[in-house]
Specification:
By secondary structure, the protein is of the alpha+beta class. The protein contains 27 helices and 29 strands. The two termini are 42 Å apart.
Length: 768
Amino acid sequence: MHSHKKVKESTLQYFNNDELATNVFITKYCLKDKKGNYMEKTPDDMHKRLAKEFARVENKLTKNADGRLTRDKIYDLLKDFKYVVPQGSPMFGIGNEYVNASLSNCVVVESPEDNISSIMESGKELANLFKNRCGVGIDISSLRPENASVNNAAKTTTGAWSFADFYSYVCRMIGQNGRRGALMISMDVRHPDIEKFITMKHDLTKVTGANVSVKITDEFMKAVEEDKLFSLEFPVGANGESKIKKDVKAKQLWNRIVSSATKTAEPGLLMWDNITKRLPANEYEEFKTVCVNPCAEIALSAYDSCRLISINLKNFVDDAFSGTARFNFTRFRDVVKTAMRLSDDLVELEIEKLTKIKESCEVEDECEMWENMLQACKNGRRTGLGTHGLADTIACLELKYDSRKALTIIDGIYKILKVTAYEESVNLAKDRGAFPAFDWEKEKNNEFIKELPEKLRNDIKKHGRRNISILTNAPTGSVSIMSQTSTGIEPVFRNSYTRRRKLAHNEQNLQADFVDQMGDKWREYEVLHHNLRDYFDFSKKKEIPSYFVTSEEIDWQKRIDIQAAIQKHIDHSISSTINLPKDTDPDIVGNLYFQGWKKGLKGITVYVEGSRDGVLLSKEEKRKNSGFPQHSSPKRPGELECDIQHTTIKGEKWVVLVGMLDDKPYEVMGGKSDLIEMPKKYSKGLLIKNERKTTNSRYDLKFGENGGEIVVKDIVKVFDNPNHSAFTRMISLSLRHGAKINFLVEQLMKDRDSDMFSFAKCIARVLK
């Protein structure tokens, strides 16, 4: 057992004073007992914990003792995040006996049936998965569109798109130790609600706890290309038996998707036919693909899940920056082989975890959900082996990320990853048995399988494969922070930047450096990219070489080419974002999407600078966001509609008037209820401003209707409390000049010792 101080000191030393990496390890992955005591001092203790468990499974599964991975060999691969890095949930959960958590990074649940009970049941499943540290994907294309008739008192439905906010709320509501829930919501482009779905997040208060993506079909893209009409229908894919159908101009719908992605970075695009045609698992009826995980790198069937392991590419470069640097393909091949074995061991560890979770369930339907996940895990043994540090690798080889030579190297790296991982899965099938659902006749014509080398295909036909689908490329955010490399396959964002880390529910007492539009709190860390620091240490030079390119300098078209070169070797998908400068024209975004579809990408996300609050900020952005921006108050009209609110705090009754301008709170005033005759049936009124030249303006309140209006003159004087009037005047000043309501509410609730706390609390309650 260790103190927080000791853990922080030791981990800072381990990471060479990297505060961000230290914070990520301590808050997310350091083993703690049920009382929150630290049981590990540094990541080295974590790696020993992981090695012990992997070795135990090796002994359990591997029949040939000579073929088993030893604990020491596994530890050598894991230590210092050098070669093999299990991602978030495995790092947290393997060997952790203090929590009952799944090792799956990502899960997809079954689409809800088109009735309210099933919609609510899906919400319950999401909650049960979030509490066990899983990111989740759900597709809502199964729900009927807006204004369709229903057999209840509502008579018509609010539409499939409207339930996205419900699922998003569930995600924000369920806290996890050291991390927040993650959710992806998708909708088929053929659904009649698709226009509402793609624009719903323009309201910044909606669907704040989820990413959203559109399933794009080849049929739709061809209709856009040929400027044809395109049919929206429900049920989706009804093949002529649609209950609801309407035709839209494909190009017009496409332009709305592109425009929204340009302005808000959402929706993401899932090239659905590219996904399903090149995913072996999709050839099996029980593994038909439903949705993707929150970062879109894993397309999954209902109740299937995936556990991620990433290989650190940077450490396969020999003699980096020396002029004779080379990528060691021989060592890489050996590590891929071992990492594939560990990926299958991880499936076995998850089977053990799921069994324990299921046994601890007290509610029957939750038990059923975990049983579904357990069976999918056993029958498919799906793995998620990927990479991180690609951009650093290319720089270490003294090549530009988007150069022709780099593209050749990249193609070679991922071809070896594909072939070696699939070969090892066959070897594992020989020793441990093929995944139970394996059937060569079902998968032999899959496009991805057909492109494997002939000998490998013949071996699969003869011996089967241990794992139904194998490869991916995740964003590797936390993994790259602790490995001190670039993320996933992404180019380096900036060589120096500010990185934001969102505070989890159990960190709300920490000082926040930034609060976003929804009131979520973030810490900021100044970062000099580690690979550049390594170069400076090696070369003793101060100038940055031209091959240290950043995302803003990379040819966007070549960015598509690089992802396409990698995607042809990955059976699942790739999580990747193309960063574009502010004010990028939507036509450019649309063209990038189109090229991505044509070149076989399975998904693509475009982020135009400034379209939302970012996790990574350049120094220039940081300067723009610093200081105190000035806002001018919109002029108050002579008459302002107001909400009349009644509330009780500690037995005292209050009336609060909230003047509304453009449906937003503009001013407040109020006082004790016994000072004014105000029947509760009146909830709306009119605040009339009477200008005066030498004294303060007078405000009259008018309420009532149909000729029975009541006017209360000089409402501030009626409430008869100078302290209250000064207090509400300052709140009104804040509202008029653009202060966000959640900030005001937070401040109003702080001063609990003040004589005015009751009034402050009643104002806070009304504004909240």
